[in-house]
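Budget justification, computational time. The allocation requested in the original proposal was used primarily to generate structure tokens for proteins on the priority list. As evidence of use, we reproduce two of the resulting records. The first is shown immediately below.
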Amino acid sequence: MSLARAQSFDFHGADEDQSPLAVARLRLMIGVLLFMVAFGLMAVRTIELGMTSPVANRTAAREIVVPPVTFARADIVDRNGELLAVNLQSSSLYANPREVTDPIGLAKQLVDVLPGLSQAELEQKLSSKRAFVWIKRKLTPKQKWQVNALGDPALNFRDEEDRLYPHGRLASHALGYVDVDGNGIAGVEHYFNDRLSEVERAGEPLALALDVRVQYALADELEAAMRAHQAIGAAGLVMDVNTGEVIAMVSMPDFDPNNIRGVGESERFNRVTKGVYELGSTFKTFTFANALDDGIATFEDGYDATKPLRISRFTINDDHPKNRYLTLPEIFAFSSNIGTAQMALDIGGDRQQQFLQSLGLLSPADLELTEVGAPMYPATWRKVSTMTISYGHGIAVSPVQLATGISSMVNGGRLNTPTLLKSRSQTSKGKPVVSPATSRQMRQLLRLAVTKGTGGRSDARGYRVGGKTGTAEKAVGGGYDRKALISSFMGVYPMDDPQYAVFALLDEPKGTKETFGFASGGWVAAPVVKNVILRTAPLLGVLPKAEDENLYQRVALMIEEDE
């Protein structure tokens, strides 16, 4: 018997003399009790429905599955504060397949407004039983508006940060790029990923040593030379010889870090830091510094260059033979392999190795990049190795290593660690590798190689350029391809007070009418260095002045002019 019926029975059996007030109270109590029972039943039913309701499930799914919003990544700027990499807000599209009523229809609509998507893949995603699937990351404002116009409740957006490189391809190998989640993948973006991702340092830009203006000029000149000589690649850099700062770094072919999809390995490859090359006669700079610093030879000494050198099955020739006895300045200016090889024998293989090791040329460069190549040299340093390495054959190093070593030869004899970060000090704190006296002599020889030797096409008037050409046949399959050259020039200016080193390299250049068919470093790379100096020296605060060759006059007189 129900409670309501029991109370009704008792009511009708009550004393007929009961007062109207008591009857009213009894009726009120019955009404309240009935209301409470009904409310309780409704609450139980509501809970049951909530546990199985699709609407409730959809709401919970939305709250649980959406990944957290990413934090801002710090900007990257050049030495003058110019933006190189910056984060901008963007939106990414996701869907809850459990809310999708027509996967095929919705997939078709999305492909119409987001053409890069695959309809088949979208149909598969939208038909899944998952509560969250990404549709497309980093939409443009127009794309977001078009998706919103579809009006489908299964679609939603997440606000994110998108990495933008305002200068596009410029400095792409130095900067690197990030993945879709904003993690650094290459370049300084990768090397400094933790620093750039720190939330508390998001407003503190990472200042690089690069100068966008110099970077542009170097890239422009290298691209023009690469096109003119039909080279398959090019590399170049500008370095502060007193601090080791890399002011500009160019590797070609390059890529646009804003659009990394479809970029091949050849474009990503950093020829300046990861590529290692036999750099030919530029290496003579180290051989001469070694001999002069150890007291093995002086400017007044010389070697017999009347005929080729033969050792075992190898023959060492000069590209510009003089067929006579040459003094040290003449050997350097005329780039004599014969004279340099004999000097190396006087130095000795062990000491040669020690000297090159002290310059960091036998180990990977210590630089803020993971894309760094290891030098290549003989496992067994034989007599012939000593001779060929003296003029840059049989040893391969990266351009950044060469520039670092050459800088130490002209800055007073101190080896700095190369860096992509802006330095707080403009004075050298590197370790001594040669004496200041030897450094002064090397400046004389490098200037002589430009005024009297093979580097004449690098001479930017008013800037007293010194330097050394480099031409080497490309190593292929255990041998050398005589038709494929690595042609380079290493320049420094101004030689009376060295400030900057400028390097240019062309990979497999072809001779032209203007170069009379020659494709050596002096013909194709030296002019690049000259043009870069003329365009960038004023930007770097180095102004031209009247030539004063007093410092070099004495050594220049030791050159016997050809009739």
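The second record produced under the same allocation is shown here.
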Amino acid sequence: SRLPFGGFGNLRTDGQTQQFTISLVPYTPGLLPTASTCVNFLRLPNYPSKAETRDRLLVAIECGSQGYARA
């Protein structure tokens, strides 16, 4: 899926603006970020470095391009 024209400010559910939420969760080695795309919610582990955050996000994006599952 893609952002609507106009970006995050135009995310809507039932005609209402839908907030995009990022929630930090406790760090666990090997844990990837997860999302509930129907409610624009991202669970992002509190990685110890920017490099690991970037790497884990890229892995999650790559894996997510293969399909979806309930998180």
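A brief technical remark on that second record: The first strand starts at residue 12 and ends at 13.
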